Amino acid sequence: MDTHEHAHEHPGGHTHIHHNTRAVKNRLARIAGHLRAVENMVDEGRDCSEILIQLAAVRAAVNGVCRLILTDHIDHCIVDAAARGDHAAIEDLHRAIDMLVK
Length: 102
Description:
It is a single chain. The protein is 73% helix and 8% strand. Helix 1 packs antiparallel against helix 2 (48-84) and helix 2 runs antiparallel to helix 3 (87-100). By secondary structure, it is mainly alpha-helical.
């Protein structure tokens, strides 16, 4: 697990530290590179099945980043929000999850 921490402020003025910022950024950079490689495959006229397999890999990697961010958010922001009785933060999480699982 990455120990690089990043703090951010929530709309209520409270700040939380996220412990996986570097891991998230590294994964996003790899995903962006992988997506560029898929774009090159399209430009080269590669087999559609190969392209679809690579897109599935990109989607799985994006889902992994979502899980990492979601876990960190729950472990820090939501635990703190629940302790403070901050229902707005929990409602925001519900909206985010709804968007993720569409």
